[in-house]
Amino acid sequence: MTAPPSLLAAPDPAARAGLPRSTRIFVAGAGGMVGRAICDQLRREGFSDLLRPDSRQLDLRNRQAVFDWFCTHHPEAVILTAARTGGIKAVTTRPLSLLSDNLRIQVNVLDAAAQSGVGRLLFLGSKCVYPQDAAQPIGEEALFTGALEPADSANAVAKIAGIEHVLAVRRQLGLRWITAVPCNLYGPHDNFHPEQARVVPALMRRYHRARLSGQQIVRNWGTGTPRRELLHVDDLARACLLLLERYDDPSPINVGTGEDVTIKELASMVAATVDYRGAVVWDADQPDGSPGGRLDVSRITALGWKPQVSLGEGLARTYAWFSPGFAAGTVRGS
What we know:
- Its EC number is 1.1.1.271.
- One of its GO terms (molecular function) is NADP+ binding.
- Helices cover 40% and strands 13% of the residues.
- By secondary structure, the protein is of the alpha/beta class.
- Helix 1 (33-44) packs across helix 7 (233-246) and helix 8 (263-274) packs across helix 10 (311-328).
- The N and C termini lie far apart (40 Å).
């Protein structure tokens, strides 16, 4: 692992004017929902030199393998989307796996990118980094101001470590790295595993199976009262490219819709999308998870970005992708 002589080189001024379409971009986590959407967006925008190894080709938890890969492929920009994620059941039953894997992935990729002198890097955080009692809507200044949601603290601590890593690189090496904090995401290529899925894929799978089997009652976890702000992954992909080209600030920047719904309202929308017409029971003995809330998205909207996919349209798109794939057994977690 030999550091190139350009490690402390001045940042490329071309980054301020947008990325040349010949830029070699490494999308870490390209096989996941977010990574796939970002790769698709980059291709639509004319980027052709995309590095997108899957986990079989490059295990991001393996430090030596990651450093060797950077030395061989020399990416000029990095988008770090790779992470282990999950819904309320996953974060409450597998906190060690989430914390350990996410810390290793982040440290390995960020250290290797710094050693290679990568001038532009976007790290994706998560809304869970904000305090559980933050004022609504949640502004970026709320970071580090209070206690985290206990149920999701392991995931939050890992993401906060990534944010701090990016800030440390900016201070010590002068590289133009940034962090975006998206709200809850959904869309095609999500994980629909019954033990690991987040709220949208979990509900969609549950109602779809109930409709196909003629099941008359669906049981959902919690009370349905927590609120969720939901962003279609294609809108996030557009935001990521805009930020890579136009944003350069040490402060993380929120990405969301600025609107939220209760989980019970969301469940009704998913049921309508799937055409499930049976009864629904809410199991209040099961955890609700974070009470939720909305992000303050004024800073990214000031850059000219706004979401284009409504929640209703996004659910319909996601189900149109999910239904045939679930039947064919090609959906992740099916």
